[in-house]
């Protein structure tokens, strides 16, 4: 049996996305316990929503993570949820530190993000497969 794909209610899929979130103003604050806590919080969110984390790592001002998700989920909703819940959590835990970094409360991530879907094969392979049909 092919384990590369998920199966659920007559659906067969493999949806994976690489997401990068950057701290507001590229502040280099994803270090030490803040980096550990943001990763743990993302793990907790993903576990509660049924997303699988394949890889995750922080740099000083951004975090990369690769997750798999269900066909009923939208990537923009996943990003929004993670940004909202991690921001709230970090402000609860690190309010004194974050209030010195940001003049406005409840800010942590920049407005944008990087998102890239990935697959098991290259675009060229899929194109050749589609062109060979019929």
Automatic annotation (TrEMBL):
InterPro entries (alphabetical): Transposase_17, Transposase_17_sf
GO terms for biological process, alphabetical: DNA transposition
Domain Transposase IS200-like residues, every copy: 12-133
SUPFAM superfamilies: Transposase IS200-like
GO MF assignments: DNA binding; transposase activity
Name assigned to this protein: Putative transposase
Organism this protein belongs to: Eubacterium oxidoreducens
Taxonomic lineage from the root: Bacteria, Bacillati, Bacillota, Clostridia, Eubacteriales
């Amino acid at each position: 049996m092919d384990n590369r794909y998920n199966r659920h209610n007559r659906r067969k899929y493999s949806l994976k996305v690489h997401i990068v979130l950057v701290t507001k103003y590229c502040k280099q604050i994803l270090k030490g316990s803040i980096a550990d806590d943001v990763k743990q919080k993302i793990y907790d969110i993903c576990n509660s929503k049924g997303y699988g984390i394949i890889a995750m790592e922080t740099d000083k001002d951004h975090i990369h993570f690769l997750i798999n998700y269900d066909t009923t989920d939208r990537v923009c909703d996943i990003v929004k949820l993670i940004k909202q819940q991690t921001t709230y959590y970090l402000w609860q835990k690190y309010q004194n530190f974050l209030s010195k970094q940001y003049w406005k409360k409840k800010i942590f991530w920049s407005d944008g993000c990087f998102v890239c879907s990935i697959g098991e094969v290259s675009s060229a392979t899929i194109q050749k497969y589609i062109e060979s049909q019929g």
